[in-house]
Amino acid sequence: MNTPLLELRAVDYAYRAEHPILQNVNLCLSAGERLALTGANGSGKTTLLHLIVGLCKPTRGQIIAFGKLRQTEADFWEVRIKAGLVFQDADDQLFCPTVAEDIAFGLFNLGKTTHEVERITQETLDILGISDYAGRITHHLSGGEKRLVALATVLAMQPDILLLDEPTTGLDEQAQARVVQILQGLPQAMLIVSHDRDFLQQLTGNVMRINPCST
Ligand SMILES: Nc1ncnc2c1ncn2[C@@H]1O[C@H](COP(=O)(O)OP(=O)(O)OP(=O)(O)O)[C@@H](O)[C@H]1O
């Protein structure tokens, strides 16, 4: 059997000791598998994605990613290259003056040449149907436009796992349909957080519900 790409074993998390957010979360994601995470507002879905990429550390339990137990910042630095997180708030993702620079940033960090970066950037924009966005000022984009660009920054990196936090929030029908079509065609494993049942149903029947902790 294939080793899972990602495993969470008995993970607990609390921002403040007296207020647990996640308790005994177990999860397993294999190559090519898509898993939807649902649950009430505040149940800890975003927190779970942040734990996977090391933005917060479990108070108990283990995160095993790409075959290794991950604990240190160096461990999670490696995880973040292979697991791309699309943040719930696109403003947390986008920080460069222009759209092209935002997409190029991660690609240059991967050691791509300028020529490769330009090619991948334009290809990614084309796939998302936003070919003319390259020179636009990121700060001036609308909420839905930023969301598409945030997705572009992650898709361009071709990570092994896509961690998608409410990827369709604010998108119009046409953009949403395009995102569904793109995600359906991708081979990567995905963890998808969304409140949109129709959207999730188009991508996976594999659903895990996160229940709020009782304190
Ligand atoms: N940095 C933080 N410090 C303290 N508490 C936090 C922090 N971030 C989130 N929380 C709290 O943790 C809980 C879980 O938040 P989280 O964003 O993970 O939920 P969620 O399931 O993604 O919610 P939603 O569906 O509304 O996006 C909430 O009660 C939230 O207020």
TrEMBL record:
PROSITE patterns: ABC_TRANSPORTER_1 (PS00211), ABC_TRANSPORTER_2 (PS50893)
Residue span(s) of domain ABC transporter: 6-215
Keywords: ATP-binding, Nucleotide-binding, Transport
Pfam families from the UniProt entry: ABC_tran
InterPro entries assigned: AAA+_ATPase (IPR003593), ABC_transporter-like_ATP-bd (IPR003439), ABC_transporter-like_CS (IPR017871), ABC_transpr_CbiO/EcfA_su (IPR015856), ECF_ABC_transporter_ATP-bd (IPR050095), P-loop_NTPase (IPR027417)
Protein family per UniProt: Belongs to the ABC transporter superfamily.
Protein's UniProt name: ATP-binding cassette domain-containing protein
